[in-house]
């Protein structure tokens, strides 16, 4: 595990009416690590991501990236700062082709503005990079189809491709394989596996399949009723009473392979 901190939340809290969905979560994440976030449905995992990415404003607490307080930035400004969350881009350009969607993500990262119609044909390098990204998410065959025409699983792969094109410092994956067919799941897991080898990337992964968590995670944190109730090495956390309790009867038991 690398030293240092990339992403940090301090006392991050949100209340919906009287309900505390995320309750004073303080946690730091280092570059070169993949942290799995587990917990029963309704534990606050997605809400925690929404607070980090700026979709939701906290009732209290801060989000820091490389020591900089992002708490007052909008979601797009946080994306720009290096926080990558797939769904922010999902529905952006349903009528553009798969390749054009990826190029757009590459373009936005390079701050070249949105005058794409003019510059695309001249940007051979951009197209080549977009093709590499497509290859890595196994969408080359879908290259010229409009994003809206893709089956659900391919749309999820496109989301991940667009996220990769942004090249964020922090990746937030919220159940990235949910709704995918059995043969599509390995493509996504393989991508996460490869991202994980990059020493400068910080990956947070919400995932219910414990065999996947065991394989990919350097660390597991557990949310329960919005609070961080366990944090540590995968085997120790999985064996802990709090996890055994939280999952007992609440999540399907996966056979470890
Ligand atoms: N926008 C919202 N308004 C009101 N309640 C919400 C909102 N978003 C999430 N919640 C509530 O916050 C809790 C945590 O939800 P969520 O973060 O989606 O859980 P998880 O992703 O762990 O399954 C749930 O009780 C949910 O109903
Ligand atoms: Mg969720």
UniProtKB/TrEMBL annotation:
Keywords associated with the record: ATP-binding, Cell membrane, Membrane, Nucleotide-binding, Transport
Nucleotidyltransferase in keyword set: no
CDD domains in the record: ABC_Mj1267_LivG_branched
InterPro entries in UniProt: AAA+_ATPase (IPR003593), ABC_AA/LPS_Transport (IPR051120), ABC_transporter-like_ATP-bd (IPR003439), P-loop_NTPase (IPR027417)
Domain ABC transporter: 7-250
Transmembrane portions of the chain: none
Domain of life of the source: Bacteria
Pfam families recorded: ABC_tran
SUPFAM superfamilies listed in its UniProt record: P-loop containing nucleoside triphosphate hydrolases (SSF52540)
Organism of provenance: Actimicrobium antarcticum
GO molecular function, one term: ATP binding
Name the UniProt record assigns to this protein: ABC transporter ATP-binding protein
């Amino acid at each position: 595990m690398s030293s240092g901190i990339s992403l940090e939340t301090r006392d991050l809290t949100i209340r919906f009416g009287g309900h505390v969905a995320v309750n004073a979560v303080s946690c730091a994440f280092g570059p070169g690590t993949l942290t799995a976030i587990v917990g029963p449905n309704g534990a606050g995992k997605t809400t925690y991501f929404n607070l980090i990415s700026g979709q939701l404003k906290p009732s209290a607490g801060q989000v820091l990236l490389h020591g900089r307080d992002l708490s007052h930035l909008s979601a797009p400004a946080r994306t720009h700062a290096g926080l990558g969350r797939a769904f922010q881009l999902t529905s952006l350009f349903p009528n553009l082709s798969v390749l054009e969607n990826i190029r757009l993500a590459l373009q936005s990262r390079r701050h070249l503005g949105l005058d794409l119609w003019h510059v695309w044909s001249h940007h051979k390098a951009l197209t080549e990079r977009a093709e590499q990204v497509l290859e890595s998410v196994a969408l080359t065959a879908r290259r010229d189809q409009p994003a809206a025409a893709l089956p659900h699983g391919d749309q999820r792969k496109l989301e991940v491709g667009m996220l990769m094109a942004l090249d964020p410092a922090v990746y937030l994956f919220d159940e990235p394989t949910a709704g995918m067919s059995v043969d599509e799941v390995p493509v996504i897991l393989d991508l996460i596996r490869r991202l994980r080898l990059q020493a400068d990337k910080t990956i947070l992964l919400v995932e219910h399949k414990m065999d996947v968590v065991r394989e990919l995670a350097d660390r597991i944190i557990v949310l329960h009723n919005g609070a961080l109730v366990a944090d540590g090495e995968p085997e120790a956390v999985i064996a802990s009473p709090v996890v055994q309790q939280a999952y007992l009867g609440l999540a399907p038991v996966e056979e470890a392979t």
